[in-house]
Amino acid sequence: MRTHFMTRVLAVGVVAALVAGCSGGEPPNSDNGASTNDGLTKNIRLEDESQPSGTPKAGGRLRIMIRLDANELDPHKMSETSAFVINEQIYESLVESYRGEIKPSIAESWEQSADGLTLTFKLRDNAYFHSGRKVTSADVKYSIERIKNPATRAPRARSYEGISAVETPDERTAVLKLSKPNAAILTLLSTAASSIVDKTVVDEKGGLNTAVDGGSGPFKIATRTAGQTIKLDKHTQYWQSGLPYLDGMDFTFNPDDNARAAAVRSGTVDFLWRPAPEFIDALKKDEKLKWYGGSGSLSLHLRLNTSKAPYDNVKVRQAIYYALDRQEILNVANSGFGTALNAGYLPPDRYGALTTPVYGKADIDKAKQLLTEAGFPNGFEAKLMVIATSAFQVRSAEVEQQQLAKIGIKVTIESVESTIADTKTKSGEFDMYQSGFGLTYDPDERFSASFLKGGGLNYGNWSDPEYEALIVQARSELDKDKRSALYQQAEKILAERGPVAMTFLNADFDVVQKDVMGYRGDPTPTYRFYRSLWLNR
């Protein structure tokens, strides 16, 4: 059965990542093997640039500024959004997702067996790693097995557990065997976390972090100074004819919100990635700039460490959840840009989300009653960890501190560097953690990594057998309506007795100079469209 069998499989998965308010232009060049989304992207509003882009010009370097550098650049180990932004320029996967459509990438075509248990990918004959070596099926096998290997500590490894084997009948053919049908498999394989890496580079260098490059994407690492700059050069052997247009991309990092806004207004940078919300209105009015966005891709939350008391007590968690006013947190922390999350992880307009709120205005009386029933009538003391250089998350923590004080929970805010937060969360050395999750192409990727036992992002090791059974069942359910119902049941459990209080979905904006052309945004989110950016200079 040919590629078009994938239409149904994609439809039940990728729509979880779709939202109104996307901005951008035309999709990248089409190719054979693409599968459609079966009409499930009807809620997406796509905006093109107000003026025609004209004929793309080759050359030039794009200067991009992001708030923070990534601590981990290994695509199989990364968890920070900045790492995804950078790595989607360096690495590629078998397929890619763009606005709800699965498209060919390293694999030029694919087939799936009638029983859904075998996926056969035909690799391009002109895909080359940055080392100059051709991408082969052995690299596909190595990459997937590396993700699944517990020693890799891949945060999303649980999503791959249904892949029982990878066979390589020849250099251009990779065959994935599944233990059961998987509705999310193609969207999973389209993510940067599923990047195909150069086996010889990993073996020789012992890993892929720092400035080691094992990718085949449109750009390759030229230099890196951790915390300051990453310079990428054009990959001259890139398989897609004519792309990328740019000679390179120069990423710089600055946690100072004022400095980032000033940099784009002065022309020091060409592309400001997600300015702080308090600067958005002013930047929109600057006639020298163009802005895109309005949709959100980052869900903020307050995570509780359920591996330690008193957060292992479900009534304590519920008391905290009822004490929070999520709309107030959004208004103060993000200038009201976004959507208050009054239920589970998924925003109400996403596939599988709860449409009826579980929480609303803070219910202080109910929260106090739950604390009393849990044995804490006078509350308790707690520490709330937050990354110091994330101003809007610090503001979130400060509002949460004030709200929890109303039920007797005396919160001390611990502002730490991102590397310290990473160490403490992974080792379970925290009480509460103000953090955020990027939305994923398919709900399974986030749910499996962040809330299932053994998930690489399940800080505090929360475990709920009923929740886990629903998520695992949903992964194999090919009927989109039944799958959605399973996620809604799981989301209700997560909201009522899970380890996190979801607070709000932010609203993302990108600001560029007038002569930066070809912006083709996608709120799934993906950043692979950067290969189509060009400079009208």
UniProtKB/TrEMBL annotation:
Keywords: Signal. Residues 29-40 have a biased composition (Polar residues). InterPro entries: Peptide/Ni-bd (IPR030678), SBP_5 (IPR039424), SBP_5_dom (IPR000914). This is ABC transporter substrate-binding protein. Pfam families: SBP_bac_5. Residues 24-59 are annotated as: Disordered. It comes from Dactylosporangium maewongense. Residues 1-25 form the signal peptide.
